[in-house]
Structures are given as C-alpha cells and as structure tokens.
Amino acid sequence: MNLYLGIDFGTTGARSTVIDSQGTIHCETEYTFANNGQQQLELPSVWQNALWDSIEQIPPTIRNQVRAIALDGTSSTVMLCNTDGIPVCEPILYNDARGAAVTERLRAIAPANHTVLSATSSLAKLLWWQEGGHGGTAPTVFLHQADWLAFLLHGKLGISDYHNALKLGFDVDTLCYPNWLTEGIAGAATPELPQVVAPGTPVGEVRDQVGDRFGFPRDCMICAGTTDSIAAFLASGVNLPGEAVTSLGSTLAVKLLSHTRVDDSRYGIYSHKLGDLWLVGGASNTGGAVLRHFFTDAELANYSTQIDPAQESLLDYYPLLKKGDRFPINDPNLPPRLEPRPTDSVEFLHGLLESIARIEARGYQLLQELGATPLTKVYTAGGGAKNSVWSAIRKRYLKVPVETPIHTAAAYGSALLAKQRTQI
To answer: CA–CA separation, 391 vs 309, rounded Å?
Structure first.
C-alpha cells in the first residue's frame, strides 16, 4: 500500500497524519512542545526533537509504506543557518515584530503596499538580522521553519516553497525574486536566499540515515511544503471561489478562495497562488492563545455552554496578549483592549468570543471591499472549530453558513500535498 505522511508544526506542538491514496487516515500522532523555559536559541533542537518523536510514534509497519512526506510550518518563522544547515542564531517566530526597527529601510526597498511591508514579514526579519550583523561574517543561508525541517529529512539545503517565501518578497507571478529585493538586500552580510519551488514539488529522497533509522522506503520522496494555515485550508477540501477557511488556533487566520488577487499591506492582506485561483487572507494575533491565557480548556467548555449565542455582548475588546496586530489592523503598536473585565467569568468569555468574531468578520469584509470574490461559506479549522457556541456567534457576524469540514488538521493538508505531488 502507498501511504503519505504530512507533518504540521504549529505554535504549541507538532502533529502528523498518514493517509492512503483515497485520503483515509491510517495514523495520527501529536507532540507538545515542553514549556520548561527554553530560550529561543534552543528552539531548533526543540523542533528537531519534535520531528523525530512525531515520526517515532508512527508504527514501523506504516512507516515502511510511506512513499512521500511534506511538512508545514508557521508562516514567517525564519532562521539563519551556516552552509551545513546548523542555525547560527536564534530563530525569529512568526509573530515577532522586531522588524519594526527596520521599517524605514523596508519602505525604501519594497513597492508601496507590498505584502512584505509588515514588522513581522520574513523580509523585515532578514533586514533586522543584516542591520545587527547577527549572521557574523561567514556565509549564511536564510530559511523558513518548514524549509529547515524538510532539510533534516532530504539533506538539500536552501529549498523553499512559494507559500512560505511570499512574505520574503518572492514574486509568484514571475516565479522569481524581483530586482528590488535582490538589489535592496545586497551587501557584505547578505544571506543566501532559498531556491523557491511550487508547494508539493518532489525535492529529494529521504536521507539514508533517516530512512535507516525509521524504516522509510529508500525511494520515499520529501516534497516542498507550505504554511500551517494553507495546510489547514488544503485539509478542508474547499475548491469553490467564495468559500473560505478560518483557522482558530492560537491565532486567527482567514483565507478566502478568490478569482482575483488582493494584496494590501496597510491591512496585512496578501494572496497566495493556488492553482489558477488565489487564496486571499491575513492573520491576526488574536485567537485561542488569548482565551487559554484566561481560562483552562475545562472552563472554556463549561462557560461556553452558559452563553446565549443569539445575545450580543456589549463588551468591546481587542483581545491580544501583547501590543501589535497584523490583520485586519496592521499596527505593531496596537494596544490590547481587555477592559472593563466583569466579575462574571461567563460574561467575560462571552465578550472575548464576540470580540474575536468581530475581528474575523471585519477581515472578510475588508477582503471583499478590496476586490476578492464575495464570501459564500466559511469552514472552521483549529481548536476553535469544536466550540459550537462560538460558531453560532461567528455566524451571526459573518452572515453566511459556518461549517466544520470533515478534515481540519493542517497535518492532513500536508499529507494531501505529499500525495498529490502536484504544483499548488
């Protein structure tokens, strides 16, 4: 039997899914990152351990039938490596806004309203590294999280996909790095940019030592990956323009399948190429991480049942754990708004759920105002999809059907990418 493995790296852990050619799931594993005060410099080791453990959990009888593997990672989580693929400084995570310090240089390089014009873009982080000389004087390679994890499997350093590379400035129309980018970053401390291929492109067979360790077939192919939110979109099976997927994980990400492309950095809106269509959307720093900051999972489940989703909350929050958002307000200094806080925990949760729903609705409204295909239906992925009360609140704001697809896991979407081995 031919099986296909997808591995998803999110904010809190890694997950894997193995499917067959019919899309039937044969195995799923989960690995939670240990929260024991690790420094950011140690993150690559954490990720590598998670990768090996996720694979180790898969039964050997399944591993030896895996024909292809694809990984996804958090968008704009980036790292600098030496020419052996060893990280030379701490990675910078997707929501890290230190790139705000190089805003002036970024605006001088990039075209107006370009996707990279954000404090959290991959290019902003690259420029921040350049300004501080963090790569040293030896040659370095700039990689995204998914690029580096795939390198651990296939051994070919410096390969990325055009979903991950979008916020680096890669042009998906011409399928090359534009002159404004290569000329704008040129200098003594310029890292080598990754070669960019279509997501799902076969990159190379699994390394001998990895294949021997885990029992993968010798010709098991490692494919170019994607971002975690696009993997969740692929998992949903959505293929009609006007349909969208909201990922309610630690953060909130919206993606609308559209005939037309929309890019506007003023609001953190960007478009990914998906076949002949465009995946238009953005990602906010609000979401489940805020809820988990105030409530346990048991409290969330219990209090949610006490909320009337048809009743509007009068609490108007902008739920963030720290200042700064990316979409639909692109402002690294946007302050959280979590006051007034009522003494009633149910009322407080109602206000949070309703406020996140308003942010989501405003996001979709903006996409359509700027020319995206009109919204007809929203599918929900991520942990928030399990909360039926929240879904009912969101439906009231979105004014379209809100459904949970059969498959919502990003790891399932990456497994589909490995199975298709086609350009998406």
So the answer is: 9
